[in-house]
Fold:
Amino acid sequence: MRNIIVITFVSLDGVMQAPGGPEEDTSGGFKHGGWTVPYFDDFAGKVMGEQMSLERSELLLGRKTYEIFAGYWPHHAAGWPGINEVKKYVASHNSAYKLDWENSVLLTDNVAEMVKKLKKEDGPDLHVWGSGNLIQTLLTYDLVDEMWLKIFPVTLGSGKRLFDEGAIPIAFELTDCKVSPLGVIFANYKRVGEVRTGSF
Structure:
């Protein structure tokens, strides 16, 4: 049984769109691409290096994130050891979509059912980077086991949000938390069950 771990950058108001550069994703007229860059320091780099370890994981990506990764990482693999060799599962509605990056596997048709089957297999955990639309599907079908969030001290007002239309009521527990000198909160959460309520 594998775990699915969502790893993402998010603003204080929940936006996750285009964290890495101005041209990364301008859909919807988004004008703040690259909003994480001023907050990266050695502390953040160290935590990122730990989370990018591929020793016991494979990747599960949406098509747009796959295209960004495939355009960059094959030529900069020294910055992410093992990224070319690791298996990459790619969700797309286009069954004819061609995957040129080595060790890439297309998931199409009923993506939720295909991911459920992957979860039931023996194998390494599946790490989801970026992939906003795919995350909504995973949340809708209760397929997320952990969330490793990098919460940045900025509000963006508009843009694609981590918890959009896909979120359902789920309780998580905090398993790890670090804060960088520049105020970035690295918070890891694990799914623990149903939401509990009470009264004061």
About this structure: The CA atoms of residues 179 and 192 lie 23 Å apart. The first strand starts at residue 4 and ends at 11. The mean pLDDT is 94. Helices lie at 42-51, 63-72, 111-120, 132-140.
